[in-house]
Amino acid sequence: MFILGNLILAIAIILNKVIEIMYFILIIRVIISWVKPDLFNFFVQLLYRITEPILSPFRRIIPLGNIGLDISPILAMLTMFFVQQFLIASLIRLGSQLGGRMM
Q1: How confident is the model over 57-61, as a mean pLDDT?
Q2: Is residue 89 a part of any domain in this protein?
Q3: What's the pTM?
């Protein structure tokens, strides 16, 4: 049973790291959006390609309209925080109860 526990712990740790990286990427995108980015820049295009699949569902739920403020990064970060606190924490606890060991 400890093998299953280790597998669940490994999955939880990888998911947690991916979410932490996505936090930083979203923060960079927000900071870049405050200035006039060069949309032909490779780095800006890469940043938009990575973050747009995460932000677009939130934009469909809450359209920008005339407010001129994009709150989709905030909603995405809150959702990622919820996933970290609920799903990943639950996976870590389950993996530990099944005999897995965190390194």
Answers
A1: 87
A2: yes
A3: 0.82
